[in-house]
Design goal:
Blueprint lengths: L5 E3 L4 H10 L3 E4 L15 E4 L6 E5 L4 E5 L4 H9 L3 E2 L13 H7 L6 H4 L6 E7 L5 E5 L24 E8 L1 E2 L3 E8 L3 H11 L8 E5 L3 E8 L4 H12 L4 E4 H12 L9 E6 L5 H8 L5 E5 L4 E6 L5 H11 L2 E6 L7 E3 L6 H9 L10
Parallel strand pairs: 1-3, 2-3
Antiparallel strand pairs: 4-5, 5-9, 6-10, 7-8, 7-9, 11-13, 11-14, 12-13, 12-16, 15-17, 15-18, 16-17, 18-19
């Protein structure tokens, strides 16, 4: 973000629409848990969405909730917990104050994505202010929605380039009775990957399947509390490898630290990199001498890479570009558009932006 960028905090939708119409370049933000996403080439008006917050409608019997974009994930989680419901995709940064709108714009899902799918699978509808300052509605508030193009999913990972999200509707799930996690330390990453791949076809449903650096496989189970010890024993026997079992508060504390990136040292950059299990070793080799720490999440469909200050973001950008990876910079000194590595700047999203932001009041995908 440019140092000379102005900040405004609209109190309602009318003020937000008027603000968008009045500026040359605008970029929304929640509470700043992902500061690198605010980078722009030119000075922009930063729109703080904290006043456009609150739960609009919650129907526990329908398993849907509608919230304003500036609502904190923590507040939503508390409301859902009163009815033993939750977001199964485990949105990251929740305890740090992350908001609904910022999470959607960054396209972030946590470890629960492995079992239930990512954030995009839970969005039913959105409302947003477009480049002309108009309030636009896409999707709806029911699980069985109208046929046609799934418009709301365009905003997942749009990083504030298509418009300003004001409201989002999600479907939610019943929360499990309990959790337990099995942590299995292996000699090297290759051995951990072999075990991880073997779990992909296992008959027990897993809530999370991660590899913690350097080579610890983390298997999380959820369901009826009394049945969890037997299920843990089955996984241990299947893998023929024993490990540490986390239950109750220890399990909850561990995954809370994972979701809030307590494992990332202060001042380090943080990048989200989509990948496939077959490419984990390629990425690991690219980063081997960089001092970075990786966590492979969602069955190794995603890597979280934390890098020390001595590894510049521009250097990471080059490494990813040379090996065909792309990544979204969450934290660190941005040197350009926050998507690092390989990115089709004139692709589908650029065409969508041209349609939704005709005046060009939001930054482009470059």
């Amino acid at each position: 973000m440019k140092d000379d960028s102005e900040r405004h905090r609209p109190g309602n939708i009318e003020e937000l629409s008027a603000l968008v119409r009045s500026v040359d370049l605008a970029l929304p933000t929640g509470c700043g848990t992902k500061p690198a996403l605010l980078w722009t080439k030119a000075p922009a008006t930063i729109i703080e969405m904290g006043e456009i917050a609150g739960i609009v409608e919650y129907l526990p019997e329908e398993y849907t909730i509608t919230t304003n974009a500036g609502t904190s994930l923590r507040d939503v989680a508390c409301a859902l917990a009163e009815n033993s419901q939750y977001f199964p995709f485990d949105p990251p940064f929740s305890d740090l104050g992350a908001t609904v709108g910022g999470t959607v714009a960054a396209g972030l899902s946590g470890a629960g994505r492995y079992r239930f799918g990512g954030l995009r699978d839970f969005i039913l509808g959105v409302r947003f202010v477009d480049g002309n300052g108009n309030l636009v509605t896409g999707g709806g508030k029911v699980v069985k929605n109208a046929a046609g193009f799934d418009f709301p999913k365009l905003f997942v990972g749009s990083v504030g380039r298509l418009g300003v999200l004001t409201e989002v509707t999600f479907k939610v799930f019943p929360a499990p009775d309990g959790y337990a996690t099995l942590k299995l330390a292996y000699e090297d990453l290759g051995s951990a990957l072999v075990a991880l791949r073997s779990m992909h076809g296992y008959t027990i449903d897993l809530h999370a399947l991660d590899i913690e650096s350097p080579a610890t496989l983390c298997v999380r189970l959820g369901g009826i509390r009394d049945a969890l010890p037997r299920r843990i024993d089955r996984v241990t026997a299947y893998l023929e490898h024993s490990g540490e079992v986390l239950e109750e508060d220890r399990d909850a504390d561990y995954w809370r630290d994972v979701a809030n990136f307590s494992w990332v040292p202060e001042g380090w950059s943080l990048v989200k990199i989509p990948l496939a299990p077959s490419r984990v070793t390629v990425l690991d080799n690219v980063l081997r001498d960089s001092g970075s720490v990786q966590r492979y999440s969602a069955g190794a469909a995603l890597a979280w890479v934390a890098s020390p200050p001595e590894l510049s973001v521009s250097s990471m950008d080059r490494k990813l570009e040379e090996t065909g990876f792309s990544g979204l910079l969450m934290r660190g000194e941005a040197v350009g558009f926050p998507i690092l590595g390989r990115f089709e700047k004139e692709g589908f999203m650029a065409r969508v932006k041209a349609a939704l932001d005709e005046p060009g009041r939001f930054p482009g995908f470059d």
